[in-house]
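Lecture notes, structural biology module. Today: joint structure prediction for complexes of two components.
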Amino acid sequence: MRLTRRRFLKLTGVGAVAAALPLDVVPVLAQSGPVRLGILAARAGVLAPVGESGLRGVQFATDRINAAGGILGRRLELIVEEESSPKDTVERFRKLALSDKVDAVSGAISTGVGLALGPAAEEMKTIWLAWDATTQKGVEESMPKPKYSFRSTDNECEAVMASILTARHWKGKFKTVAGINPDYSYGRDNWAAFLAIMKKYGIEAQVVSELWPKLGATDFTSHVATLIQAKPDLIFSCFWAGDTPIFMKQAHAAGLTKSTKVVLTTGGGVHESLKKDFTPEGAILGYNCFYFENPKASALAKEFTRWHAEKFKEWPNYESDHGYFTVVAFKAAIERAAKAAGGKWPTQDAIIQALEGVEAESLSGPRRYREDHIMEAAFFQGVTTHRNRHDFVTIDPVESMSTKQIQKPSGVGLYDWINGWKV
Amino acid sequence: MSAVRWALALGWPTPLFLPVLLAAGLALAAVGPVIERLLRPIYDRDESFQLLLTFALVLMFEDVIRFVWGTAPHQLGNVYLAYGQVRVGALTVPTYNLIVIACSAGIAAGMGWFLARTRFGRIVRATAENREMAAAMGVDMTRVYARVFTLGVALGTVGGALVIPATAAVNEMGIELIVEAFAVVVIGGLGSMRGAFAGALVVGVVKAVAIATWPEVEMLAIYVIVIAVLVLRPAGLFARATA
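The predicted structure, tokenised, for the full assembly:
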């Protein structure tokens, strides 16, 4: 069809009217046809491995749900969009809400994106179940009491747990510490939490070096040289991506890790890249909320690990579990709300209410959403070992802590909470 | 420009030792003439067009790499330590680092010899100096461009191959290196071999010193120098006097 001037004006007129419509109309959930779940997954850039991992968990959950008859008899359908910059991701969120008319959106890893999506979810009145994207400061400031956003576990949980383990295993065995952490809120907050917890445990460690390579850096030879000169007894790092193996490799090659204790709060996210050749035994390594070789793994976790290894030729990591939980929690909330409504398909408000406090079986055991919309889960960390069937390090023994212990409770600042501990 | 192609070296069946890696790097230079053909139409356009097009190519290469090799970082296991370590007093230096330094010195010397002493090197210098004049003297511009470009790509891919054992091939690594390469070129002066050499040394040493003394200013220090050079010697440290 040729676009005449009249038709163009008509189209733009319709667009203008649509844009001017008030957004406080409560979306009515379609009650037949498939349940539509929008997904925001990073599949490009530095976040891509993590985004892919989350997407796999979501896919696994969806396949299982549909194989078992869907949600109250309705199929679950995924509409996958890309997580990229905050601005573009918010636009895709709008598209999912307005054009695809999804029942909820699951996804997002980057804190920057998360901070932008929080207000967008409230504005669009669309349920958003985050996979990650929850660094302290931003969360406290921009999403104090959300209605539609359901957030992940705090990003600092892993630093809190690793710090507690450091104090437990090594108190009195180190005098000097150095930090090498990515130069953004996550790295800064984790390092500050570590130092605060050391103080709380009465460990007066002297900080001999604080290094802040930028996120995504791929060469740490100068940093390693600086650390060798500073001679710390312990190095703390919350690297979580390709930076982890590169740093460990270069540190090992220069002889840095031979006698220095190492704490890697989050390196378990790229566990397969931490080869035995350069990752020492005896380091504290965190796997966030899912450890693929947990001896106490449930049948579900074992099934997922097998599925993942066969399909992708990789052992799964934590982000899959975050993704998985958002889907099964959404299903559990719908069923919970429907039960309360006498079997009728619930309203959006009823689903939100049911999500608060909902519990569901995730890949790492039971998980729930707190009443303040924050996830509660178990975290897994331990001391690295070379005694396994892989060419990369694993942990033994596997230590687990609940977010009840390592995540700040509702309404309290992170550092106020730590300072209030009774140790 | 060629930085991103470095990651391509990963596609080869795990090159377990240096020669294979270098051969892989060199073989990748084969993409050079193809890209050169693509760039030909914009040789006469403003330099910013060339910059934009080459940068667009970098981004497209990143996507191609992602489709083929996925998103996770790739690494070459223990190749890095295959040659052992050298101990000098309290210092431990991986032998591989020394090999890379030797290779770089060798390549720099080779390039110097090539540009100064060979017939083709003289043609390249003449072309860089004055393209129209060189063409008027009967130099086949198309061939010179294709060859020089391929040579540049080969330097990039071999450099990438050398760096991978010490780090890992990450899809975004190209961008980081490109930004630093810009600083090197600005400091050294466009079109000057000695300038590029000096610029690279300045950037590398300043970075290392900044990290050791005041890590927060690592990037800042480099760009302060870039700005200083742009203000005081806009053509770069080793720019030839222009008429």
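Point to remember: The first strand of chain B starts at residue 85 and ends at 88.
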